[in-house]
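Task card 7
Instruction: Convert sequence to structure tokens.
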Amino acid sequence: MAVQFKDYYEILGVERGASDAEIKQAFRKLARQHHPDVAKNKREAEEKFKEINEAYEVLGDPAKRKKYDELGADWKAGAEFRPPPGWQPFGAGAFRTAAQGAGYEFQFGGTGFSDFFEQVFGSMGRGGTGARFGRSVFSEEEFTERGRDVEGDIMVTLEEAMHGSVRTVSVRPAVACEECHGTGERRGRVCHVCAGNGRVSKVDKYQVKIPAGVGEGQRLRLAGRGEAGSGGGKAGDLYLRVRFARHPDFEVDGHDLVYEADVAPWEAVLGTTVSVPTLKAHVSIKIPPGTQNGQKLRVRGHGLPRRDGGSGDLIVLTRIQVPERISDRERALWEQLARESRFNPRG
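Output:
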């Protein structure tokens, strides 16, 4: 299956040799700019936000970035992409061709991930165990088999995990050509069914409920929406695996949210009160005197909801920032402090 290649470096506006810090900085800047909660054109911003998230999902993960870079730098954004010979998708069962199963391949829409991502990095494919190759020697009356389960990914924002939502997801199963077996190669006569490109069935649309308190990696089940059964057998199920969209302000640790708060040296020494964001509103927290760099401060109940009715916490991670440039007056004060202070960090 040919899909449109995604140039994730171009999407984030960074060079291919960009450092991890540069990629993270670029993502945060773009994610804040295009976050649907702040953008005027919410529909347009939502699509851009998903695209930025997908790019960071790959480039922000060392293993995925390495796999992506193996594709080479010669691909152009918008060009058709087919996995090169011998290419192995990221993770097991990322996608299937006709030769690997019963000739089924599923494409998803409305999940927040592109077909390119699903084909190379996603979990799109058939679940279950075992495999069927070719056709059964039994007739339909003699052979009944349940359809395979199908699994894909769905991008869920932290706001959706907080409040819950309903999303429309489209599923399009493609039945591979019996002549080319989904490879697109013409063997013998030209395929009269699909002209070498696979026969595409109609698109089915389903309403998917994302419950408040859903967790990263949790699978949402749509019964009977997977591969059709044979010989009167029941259809398999469709599973959508939740992947949290990256947020410009928070990292996720289970149901806890982690926020990095910048603190001036004198604030860390003397203590202060700072305002920090949550998914609902800003809250004020106390930075105690003597706070260390990297110290964790816990704000209970301001994380993601849990299915049991409770909530995770907000973890504020302090980052002490040192001024890069100071005035002559400031320098004199720092020098005075250095002379009078009895503190020795190496003592």
